[in-house]
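Q: Structure for this?
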Amino acid sequence: MSLTRRDFLKYSAVAAAGASSVPIFKSAMAMGKKPEKVVSHVTTFCEMCFWNCGAIAKVENGKVVKLEGNPANAASKGKLCARGNAGMGSLYDPDRLKHPMLNTGKRGEPKWKKVSWDEALGFTAEKLKSIKEKYGPEAVALISHGSGGSFWKYILNAYGSPNYTAPSFAQCRGPRDIGYLLTFGDGPGSPEQIDLANSKFIVLIGSHLGENVHNSQVQEFVEGIAKGAKLVVVDPRFSTAAGKATWWLPIKPGTDMALLLSWINIILQEDLYDKEYINKYAMGLKGLKEEVKNYTPEWASKETEIPADLIVETAREMSRYKPRVLIHPGRHSSWYGDDTQRSRAMAILSALMGSWGREGGYYFPTKASLSLVYPGIPDMPEPQKHKLSGDWPYAIEATTTAMRRATITGNPYPVKGWIANGCNVMKTLPNQKETIEAIKNLDLMVVVDILPFEHTEWADVILPECTYLERYDDIKVSKGKTLSVTIRQPAVNPMYESKPSWWITRELGIKLGLEAYYPWSDIEDYLKKQLEPKGIRLETLKEKGTISFPDTANPFIAPGNEPVFNTDSKKIELYSKALKEKGFDPVPKYKRPEAPSNGYFRLIYGRSPLHTFSRTTNNQWLWELYKENEAWVSAKRAKAMGLKNGEYVVLVNQDGVKSNKIKLKATERIREDCVFIVHGFGNNSKDLKKAYKKGADDQGLITRYAVDPLMGGTGMRVNFVKIVKEA
Amino acid sequence: MPRYGMVIDQSRCIGCMACVVACKKENDVPDEHYRTRVVELVEGTFPKLRMELRPELCNHCSNAPCVYNCPTGASYKREDGIVMVNKKKCVGCKACIAACPYDARFVDPRTGAAHKCTLCEHRIKEGKEPACVTTCLSKARIFGDFGDPQSTVSKIKADKHIRVLIAEAGTKPFVFYLNPEPLA
């Protein structure tokens, strides 16, 4: 294998010299009677999800035929998940956005006119100029997901707006990051800085890792279990992870805080915490003890419907393995509106186990850093107005939903232009009515994407981006246990008239009079001048895909490697004075969630290992394996309602919103009080021929959301549905 | 002479389906058909449940019914244990499909010939592992040479309790499963 690989790498440099000069490696396989194939291997990183695994594309006669993980890359470790393996399904999707288009009809009822790039970008630039003149540059906002986003953020910066938003904050991991930040002075990172492979006791709370495939993390999770780690899975649904668990705790949805506070109480009452660690690194133990003393296992049992003895047993067991205990921080954490506090409870429990900065717990990312900047760029203009982060004290980023509100109300200032890059706003933001209302208020709606997801129907102009296999992007700098850089480079030329974001933004920038910010001649010059001052040769990086700096690791507390906590007290804050001063609970408190009324179920949602959000639902090879989502409902309740496994039903939420038809999965694997569906289905865009109307859209049913008062996260598990037979 | 085969450690499988898609792309498998799959079994009633995840593929049997039921000699077994189909000799009669107790074959609608797992013999030739093994996130699939007593698979076979699927069929499979408590 190593010989073959070396050959591949040797030739990949040639391959990478650009998709235009077709590379030149005669495969041994092609020596037979068939015409000779021209084969090359091009390093890149995956964009099928945000894990961005290092990958190697096999290109045969100008066509990507296979993708494999790059063994030199820590996110993939030489392996790709189902989605990564199916990357060509995006590249060769016949439904792709092929040409720049202008909407000559209405938003929502588009009539598309094929135009040149010059016309599309000219139109966009004129609109952007006029918004800037009338309302100021901050009236344009970006909603972004994915690697092309950095170029859009850059142009927005140069244009003068601070409003680059991403649903990854308020609709996803923001509450978690802030909860940990308030406790440890740092978030758990992305990828999460967790040492799963060496854990002795793993707790998943509402995380279905495994169905949620974050490549290297899943690999390390399995490694930990294979090495004998005990596993607690807290989930109303018997997930795949629950199938591996020592204890599955089928918790009543929305009561996770009760379980966490009770665990903390038991551990404190029975003196099971890591005393030396807490004495040395933490503050506020007394206050914590006082605040949680009433959260007994018996009380928690009533709230969570988990037997009290199991709550006690799991608390004692986890303590036996401290500090090699990993309370997994989760990722999508915007559930009930008190999510920052729930995450804080998880952080506090982790602290009591002494697992922050310890083997088998949380590790410290490398202290080394690498800042890649193109030399001689003029300073960016100072934004004249504050970014739209709402009134929440810990909204450290401009938030999608505050930005959407401003677009509707004009407060605190008007927003008149949206640029959506790699982000189907219909499926990522709760309450689609509000999203539509906001879009109707805009002077300009730009969609930059690879496929006609439903938000494209609301665009004024469509800028077709090429897929990750056809483009360069910014260098990915990863800080895990080690520092590394990974390149994305085209495996093949862009198809149709699609273009990479680096090109689109540069052309648009020049049309906007921002050419001073775009001094590079081409993308290779842009990358080279960033890398070379750091001693990294572009050609070498193209050949290897990933370059790591392994001597930068120092992941665990040790003599000479004492932790630094960037909190007010410079310690782990079990009790937060900062929160108290701002009028919030210094220690998390439990609030009972609203219960579903008669005949209703709580709607919960999650992932399939075969799909990423809504964006892979039209991918031939993923679609084939999971074409539509199913409504998981308890077999007992299905029977009582006279519903059969596999029949189509419709979900109707508390506000009367009806879903597309969805197949019922009557199963023992879920509690009686909730319905689970996989997120991202029920696509309403006719132009996605495979995904159109397949399954039900959870986001359509999420008309209500509970806003986190600390950071503006939108809790989305506060909706209830009833199940009706398909008419 | 090598004797290729696989050990599957079911306790590691997480059901991520990476193997299924990797196989499909490596081997240009026709739409809506698969050479491998992951079977998910769940037993019990809420909340006392057990789950088994079982990757399945051609068992490359020593006593392969697909081979001895093939009327034209298209299905054959190589000396290294890999069961193959010679497309040119296959008349699409489906006798092999009926004979296989593991549902490991299908007719390729593009060629009319039987289609099945080759253990990625083209990759083995290049010193690589089968695509499903290379991509397996959980390292549940372990490929190797049972002819070599020092290989990982031989050692697992010698040291651990392993089983084969539908042993009573007498097919002598060379895909072995590590799973102490299989579901019915």
